[in-house]
Amino acid sequence: MPDAPLILVNGSPAASISPLDRGLAFGDGVFRTLRMEAGEPVWWPDHLAKLTADCRQLAMSCPTRSEWEQDIAWLAARQPDAVVKLIVTRGTGPRGYRLPDAPYPTRIAMATPLPDFPDPLAASGATVRVCDLRLGRQPRLAGAKHLNRLENVLARMEWDDPAIDEGILLDDAGRVISGVMANLFISSGGRWRTPVLDACGVAGVTRARLLGILAAEETHIGLADLLGADAVLLSNSLIRLRWVARLGERTWPRPADFDDLMEKLCSGA
Amino acid sequence: MPDAPLILVNGSPAASISPLDRGLAFGDGVFRTLRMEAGEPVWWPDHLAKLTADCRQLAMSCPTRSEWEQDIAWLAARQPDAVVKLIVTRGTGPRGYRLPDAPYPTRIAMATPLPDFPDPLAASGATVRVCDLRLGRQPRLAGAKHLNRLENVLARMEWDDPAIDEGILLDDAGRVISGVMANLFISSGGRWRTPVLDACGVAGVTRARLLGILAAEETHIGLADLLGADAVLLSNSLIRLRWVARLGERTWPRPADFDDLMEKLCSGA
User: Fold this and answer.
1) Cβ–Cβ contact B51 with A under 8 A
2) Given an 8 Å threshold on Cβ–Cβ distance, is B27 in contact with A3?
3) Sign of CA dihedral B157, B159, B161, B163
4) Could you give the strand order of the β-sheet that contains A6-9, starting from the edge strand earlier in sequence?
5) pLDDT class for B61, splitting at 50, 70, 90?
6) Do residues B14 and B99 both lie within one domain?
7) Does A46 touch chain B (CB under 8 A)?
């Protein structure tokens, strides 16, 4: 495989996990994807806090900060500019949903070379489509970046056209939730909003930062709100921020304050 | 670990899978759990058909019958009375939800000794509880036994009391769907019914057989219907059939035709 990633499993270089891992059996775990630039994991305290919170949401123990930082240092020494993916599962266990008596989490850290993302300040806007798949609502899992991601897989299968950058996901009540890979902010009349994620979606680190920078409100958002918005932004830890230029026949110009927002987002500690 | 299972990965004895497997990353796969008795996988044609159908539901290719049968023969020679678990994932791939250009499924076959299930004909009835967790509704995944099973994990975490045998799951509209580990049939006025599984739940092999044996109807079932039923049965490929004796204050006697039903179920080819 091109760009074979560097992989640590429980701190040791390894190319394998147990077929008995509950991460495989049930998707019983959570993950993070983040940028590493010049050996520094970007927004690391935020990512660590989110990983810990997501583990807590599943009543799982999370590896310690020092364990993760040892892993990241090992990856950084070998691949200083990278996409880092951190996975924690509830570990191996006997067959069946019941938790093992003494679960011991599996900790996986991987790095792949930072792909050639378009320079967000120079890039043209994104072209998006609306996915047919509607997200199910599960408040107990909402917000967490857990390993049950078949909805995202099925949604991403809906298009092959490389001109489409992202798919917009609605829930089964018709509310806009997010992109398949990114979160979403809309501006109307000078006011920024992002979907409330209390029943589905992933409340990520970049979204949390943008909520502050934009003084955005979490609200229910319909497709008509999105189409009627003055500007639409996509965000995640890898692309950071991208503006939406087209959804079907609807087009938007580059937001006047885009460079300013990107600057504020990237200059944050 | 006691009872360490026998494991084949893509036909070879193996204790590992790749951390890049999409089964781990996204729960992108399906599975089956079945009984093997004296080296014979029980209801094998049904299980193979269901595995193939579930792969098709996720637009995945399924390993061939002859590949599975080679795996099962290898397991049967070493552990003739076993719980067999078969997993198929979309295989390894680069980071991201987008399908690999040429996905190659990962095929896992495992066997653990058949546990000491209570003899269903001699056993007392099951004590069940109603779970707090409500299943989300996702028609695109409904019926399939896919690897996104966090709802079952969370539901099974709700009780520790060994006197509770099973938890009843309702969906977010309040409809009874199934147990955490088993499907469910109720009898009222001589008519058998089982929940329609068009938005959640797993439409398993034993359920399909019982639909025929009981001439049961698939309908919406509320908790009041369940509590008001003359008899309630639980089914899956491991326990086969068990009658429900208690739910809170509600108790049921052993159904008069239980032994007859069990006999019909077990005598099927």
Assistant:
1) no
2) no
3) negative
4) A12-13, A6-9, A106-113, A82-89, A29-37, A40-41
5) very high
6) yes
7) no
User: What residue type is A185 in one-letter code?
Assistant: F
Tell me the three-class secondary structure of B139-150, residue by residue. Answer: CCCCECCECCCH
Q: Are residues B105 and B177 in the same domain?
A: no
- Cβ distance A28 to B150 less than 8 Å, yes or no, reads yes
**Residues from chain B contacting residue A18 (CB–CB below 8 Å):** 15-17
**Confidence at A118, pLDDT banded by 50, 70, 90:** low
DSSP string, B106-158: EEEEEEEEPP-PPPTTTPPPEEEEEEEEEE---TTTTB--BS--HHHHHHHTT
Contact A199, A134 (CB under 8 A): no
Residue B219 sits in the same domain as residue B178:
yes
Question: How many CB pairs lie under 8 A apart between chains A and B?
Answer: 183
Residues of chain A with Cβ-Cβ distance to B85 below 8 Å are 95
A116 band by pLDDT with thresholds 50, 70 and 90: confident
> Do A50 and A152 reside in the same domain of the chain?
no
In which domain, by residue range, is A146 found?
126-267
Express each pLDDT in B107-131 by its tens digit: 999 999 988 766 666 678 999 999 9
Best probe of the A interface among B21, B71, B153, by most A CBs < 10 A, is: B153
CATH of the domain at A214: 3.20.10.10
Asked if A15's CB is within 8 angstroms of B17's CB, the reply is no
pLDDT, tens digit, 9 for 90 and up, residues B136-179: 999 999 999 999 999 999 999 999 999 999 999 999 999 999 99
- pLDDT (tens digit per residue) in A182-205: 999 999 999 999 999 999 999 999
The residue whose two tokens read 């010049």 is: A38
The closest of A114, A89, A153 to A5, measured between CA atoms, is A114
CB A33 within 8 A of CB A85: yes
Please tell me whether the overall predicted TM-score, pTM, comes out greater than 0.90 for this model. yes
Measured between beta carbons, which residues in chain B are less than 8 angstroms from residue A152? 26, 97
A147 touches chain B (CB under 8 A): yes
Q: Are B143 and B157 in contact (CB under 8 A)?
A: no
Distance CA B159, CA B167 (A): 8
Q: Kindly determine whether residue B97 and residue A152, on different chains, have CB atoms separated by under 8 Å.
A: yes
